[in-house]
Design goal:
With about 475 residues, the chain is α+β, with helices and mostly antiparallel strands. It is built from 18 helices and 23 strands. A hairpin with a 2-residue loop joins β5 and β6. The longest helix has 15 residues. It is globular. The structure holds iron/sulfur cluster. Iron/sulfur cluster (SF4) binds next to α17.
Length: about 475
């Protein structure tokens, strides 16, 4: 599904490189490959060993960085960020990396995820005299680091991380060091690679493929990596790690060519489609997927059901970003601008339409209507994830519960609203089985909270009302 139409958006991607003469240029390519994780703003900070220098701006990577701008970012190490801003959290000052200067040196921070106790911490810090420049969670970490009282940066960072709750993949850079930290649940993906002798880190492995880097391993939940000219060091900053990687990374967010915690995303989505076919066998003539993120699942469904996969919907790739608008009316118009049914494929056919999720239901209704107007005799909607009933507090911009159609409506009620001949969601067990497990327990190392309401961390719902995000 098209992210900007669905109302379900990833919030940020991070990229870092240590020890390469073209650090800024490589960061540019890495961030470009992570653009799907955030389109509202981007930035790169470099170090030449003596000082940090950065550029950031609102817009896409290609809009913010010209060739000259990249050339001016001289240095052999860099961290970068792509950001999706939510209501109340936009604006230039919140675009990352955030750069802080103090008598003790400079610090740049890039964050993917969302802290659930940021407001509590912020109130405490303000009570102690801290002044915040942004409404972003990320700044909280900078204040905690500077106030920790330890002399070594590593200890300052470990102490600060121990106070955070929620989802975070952090890149922290000083003039002479880069630190990489993943929250104790590993809610967001983060991988380590090598480009020659240079260390690279990225939210997704597709960034490594683009720059020709070799994947080394995934960063572990609760791990702190310290990278400098002497090499790499790994430490655990907590013993209470318990993997709960966001299941939606497989369903929807990550790129199909990325491997998330060792599992290829396209393959995982195909498995979701296959599992759906066993849970929802339907008599039909063709299977189609909503481009782009549902195509892999549709192929899997078609293979398992023995029904031909056809391109029943195409995406118009040349619609400008001006169509990315928050209001419902523009969102509905946007569906028509961005997707078209292929009449020659669906006319006179019973169509199975595979989509990855339903958030508000508006887009699904539009697509079902389009397919019927194009001559489909039946439209059966199958969804490669369970109903999203609960909001996400970990950096995914799901709507509030009131806007989630499945929060208070049954599957049959949703079917009626979207006008489908049948509607099936994947079961929670089916999702875990298809994607593969990692760890023990009911959730097998996955966060499934938006489906089940069982959050892997404490949550502070009152905090989230501000719309403050990474
Ligand atoms: S609540 Fe849902 S979207 Fe948020 S991290 Fe968990 S699985 Fe992912």
């Amino acid at each position: 599904m098209l992210a900007e139409l669905k109302g379900l958006n990833e919030e940020c991607g991070v990229f870092g490189i240590w020890g390469h003469e073209n650090a800024a240029q490589i960061a540019y390519y890495g961030l470009h490959s992570l653009q799907h994780r955030g389109q509202e703003g981007t930035g790169i900070v470099v170090t030449d060993g003596r000082q940090l220098k950065g550029k950031k701006g609102e817009g896409l990577v290609t809009e913010v960085f010209s060739k000259n701008a990249i050339q001016e970012l001289e240095g052999n190490s860099a961290i970068g960020h792509v950001r999706y801003a939510t209501a109340g959290g936009g604006g230039y000052e919140n675009v990352q990396p955030l750069l802080f200067n103090s008598q003790n040196g400079s610090l740049a921070l890039a964050h993917n995820g969302n802290l659930v106790n940021a407001n509590n911490l912020k109130h405490q810090l303000e009570g102690q005299g801290s002044i915040f420049q942004t409404s972003s969670d990320t700044e909280v970490l900078a204040h905690l680091i500077r106030r920790s009282g330890f002399s070594q940066l590593k200890d300052q960072v470990k102490n600060a991380l121990s106070m955070l709750k929620g989802a975070y993949a952090f890149l922290i850079m000083t003039e002479t060091e880069m630190m990489v930290a993943l929250d104790p649940h590993g809610l967001r993906p983060l991988s380590l690679g090598l480009l020659g002798d240079a260390y690279v880190v990225a939210s997704e492995t597709c960034a490594f493929d683009i720059i020709g880097a070799e994947f080394v391993r995934d960063v572990l939940p609760g791990e702190l990596l310290i990278i400098n000219d002497d090499g790499i060091q790994s430490e655990m900053f907590t013993i209470n790690s318990n993997t709960a990687l966001c299941a939606m990374e497989y369903v929807y967010f990550s790129r199909p060519d990325s491997n998330v915690n060792g599992i290829n995303v396209h393959t995982a989505r195909k498995s979701l489609g296959k599992q759906l076919a066993t849970e929802a066998p339907i008599k039909a003539d063709v299977v189609t997927g909503v481009p782009d993120s549902s195509i892999s699942a549709a192929i899997g469904y078609a293979e398992a059901a023995g029904i031909p996969y056809e391109m029943g919907l195409i995406k118009n790739r040349y619609v400008g970003r001006t169509f990315i608008q928050p209001s419902q009316s523009l969102r509905e118009q946007g569906v028509k601008m961005k997707l078209s049914p292929v009449r020659g494929v669906v006319e006179g056919k019973r169509v199975i339409m595979v989509d990855d999720s339903i958030v508000r239901g508006t887009t699904s209704r539009r697509i079902v209507t389009m397919l019927k107007e194009a001559g489909a005799t039946e439209v059966h909607v199958v969804i490669s994830s369970p109903p999203i009933k609960n909001p996400c507090f970990y950096g995914i911009d799901t709507s509030s519960s009131e806007e989630l159609i499945a929060s208070d409506k049954s599957v049959e009620q949703i079917r009626e609203i979207i006008g489908a001949d049948s509607l099936t969601f994947l079961s929670v067990d089916g999702l875990v089985k298809a994607v593969g497990s990692e760890g023990e327990g009911e959730t097998k190392g996955r966060c499934l909270a938006c489906f089940t309401g069982k959050y892997p961390t404490e949550i502070y719902p009152e905090e989230m009302a501000t719309g403050r995000k990474c």
